[in-house]
Structure to design on (566 residues):
């Protein structure tokens, strides 16, 4: 069906200031939404108080209000501008909460403002833990055993039935704010009191712990005609118990069977149908028991999310841009894929590479902070790398963190000679991945590390491939490495600097040697369709896989722009 003509002016709510757990990953979505709606001929009004984002640049919206994102402030903008519609799900949790407050205050009905992209009822179901649990039971999906607490006494009663440990999840907060894992009564009282204080509803969910289970996210999109697609599956390297924003994540999911993946796909679309997400993108999170394949629904977000930004870059499918078009009545088959400019958006993305995201922490700026990772997000940013193998993507991503560590810890093994080494392998922290890799160097078995960490053996075996390659390189001089072996090492993501370290040479010598052998990278294209259709947009990554480059040459003058990194 064509775009809606009964609405002319749309109010978009941004995400406000950059805070841990909600930052510029939502500014990308809001900017894309504003540009997409303007391109369709709508008048766009934006409310956002963040000066450090392109979203508030003059020209992104027709009018921008740099005002607090509160119900009172936005109500005054609505009174002045009289928009026909409100698009709240591009501003993260801030946008959703503001929309709910405006609805409950009667502002939307008073001025005849329609919520598009999602409706207030779907926001309530998706974000209210109790309503969501009831909705999942209605469609026969399993959730954790749990209870809702509105006081510390309520939580103590619930934990008496469930036992420790328990996970506390406040309603209507982002980044796990106010939540955590309670191992004893002191933990419970502290976390519950904080969670109730931070939840707009004064409500927390106290649920059984499923620590150690696999955590999988599905990025899903639906239009007003009921068509739904799964854009991307994302798997956490860390098991349940670590917030997905603090975990290394991999797309597509690597350790699920095809049967499990199809079940999650079907469940995701059924959840969107039940919650009532009429149009746009959503993020659904599952826990999968590695022992028996039992699936638990953890939560869903009826909005673009941090994972939506990752999925967009990982697949080339512009989630926010498409979601904005769906919000004004277009259907997936009517929206053209911007990458191929030939296929419609109803084609599910297919990727022939591996994407790894690694979170970036800044504990050095927060002295005294508990660095243990839990269900409350502590990362301040992230990096993403693309490669043809997990090893290549992982190695590239770890070097991109800009923490002065380009060797996966191999350049200073004395750092790991600590009395609590085993505990540092076991307890999730920003540094644990380095201790896991060092444990593999020391000959620890994959089974022992899996038992301590819960990290799937598939990932541990591929990390072992990296440490085995380090050992292989250390036994050779640079001139002993053949062209085929050099290419294999580069396909594992090893930089010239890493190879130089292990072979006792210099980075420049490694670069000269491999170039003389003809080992140079190919430029591959992110095209959303696994090479089935040619891409019209140049979105690339480097890899050392065999084959020609896919970059299209141009006669235009060129300028290189260096960005800021993580």
């Amino acid at each position: 069906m064509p775009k809606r003509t009964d609405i002319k002016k749309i109010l978009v709510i941004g995400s406000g200031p950059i805070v841990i757990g909600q930052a510029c990953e939502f500014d990308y979505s809001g900017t894309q939404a504003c540009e997409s709606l303007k391109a369709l001929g709508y008048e766009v009004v934006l409310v956002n108080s963040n000066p450090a984002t392109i979203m508030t640049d003059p020209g992104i919206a027709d009018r921008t209000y740099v005002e607090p994102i509160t119900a009172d402030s936005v109500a005054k903008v609505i009174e002045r501008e009289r928009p026909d519609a409100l698009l709240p799900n591009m501003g993260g949790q801030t946008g959703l909460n503001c929309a709910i407050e405006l609805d409950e205050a009667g502002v939307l009905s008073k001025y005849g403002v329609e919520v598009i992209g999602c409706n207030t009822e779907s926001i309530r179901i998706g974000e209210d833990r109790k309503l969501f649990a009831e909705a999942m039971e209605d469609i026969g999906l399993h959730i954790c055993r749990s209870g809702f607490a509105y006081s510390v006494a309520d939580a103590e009663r619930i934990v008496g039935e469930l036992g420790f440990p328990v996970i506390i999840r406040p309603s209507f907060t982002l980044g796990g704010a106010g939540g955590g894992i309670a191992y004893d009564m002191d933990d419970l009282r502290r976390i519950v009191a904080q969670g109730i204080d931070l939840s707009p509803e004064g409500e927390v969910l106290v649920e059984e712990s499923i620590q150690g289970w696999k955590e999988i996210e599905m990025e899903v999109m639906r239009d007003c005609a009921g068509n739904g697609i799964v854009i991307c599956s994302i798997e956490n390297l860390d098991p349940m118990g670590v917030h997905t924003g603090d975990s290394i994540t991999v797309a597509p999911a690597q350790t699920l069977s095809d049967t499990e993946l199809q079940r999650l796909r079907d469940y995701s679309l059924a959840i969107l149908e039940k919650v009532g997400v009429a149009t746009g993108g959503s993020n659904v999170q599952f826990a999968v028991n590695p022992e028996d394949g039992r699936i638990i629904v953890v939560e869903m977000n009826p909005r673009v999310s941090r994972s939506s930004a990752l999925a967009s870059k990982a697949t080339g499918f512009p989630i926010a841009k498409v979601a904005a078009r769906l919000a004004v009545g277009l259907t997936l088959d009517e929206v053209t894929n911007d990458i191929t400019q030939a296929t419609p958006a109803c084609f599910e993305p297919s990727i022939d590479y591996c994407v790894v995201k690694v979170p970036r922490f800044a504990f050095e700026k927060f002295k005294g902070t508990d660095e243990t990772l839990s269900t409350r997000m502590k990362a301040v940013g992230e990096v993403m790398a693309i490669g043809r193998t997990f090893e290549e993507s992982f190695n590239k991503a770890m070097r991109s963190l800009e923490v002065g560590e380009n060797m996966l810890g191999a350049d200073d093994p004395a750092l790991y000679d600590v009395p609590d080494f085993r505990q540092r392998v076991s307890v999730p922290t920003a540094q644990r991945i380095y201790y896991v890799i060092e444990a593999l160097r020391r000959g620890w078995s994959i089974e022992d590390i899996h038992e301590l960490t819960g990290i799937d053996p598939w990932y541990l075996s591929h990390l072992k491939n990296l440490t085995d390659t380090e050992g292989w390189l250390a036994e050779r001089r640079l001139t002993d490495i053949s062209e085929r072996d050099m290419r294999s090492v580069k396909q594992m993501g090893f930089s010239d600097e890493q190879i130089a370290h292990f072979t006792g040479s210099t980075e420049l010598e490694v670069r000269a040697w491999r170039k003389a052998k003809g080992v140079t990278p190919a430029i591959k294209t992110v095209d959303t369709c696994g090479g089935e259709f040619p891409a019209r947009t140049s979105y690339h990554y480097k890899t050392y896989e065999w084959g020609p480059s896919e970059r299209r040459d141009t006669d235009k003058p060129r300028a290189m722009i260096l960005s800021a990194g993580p």
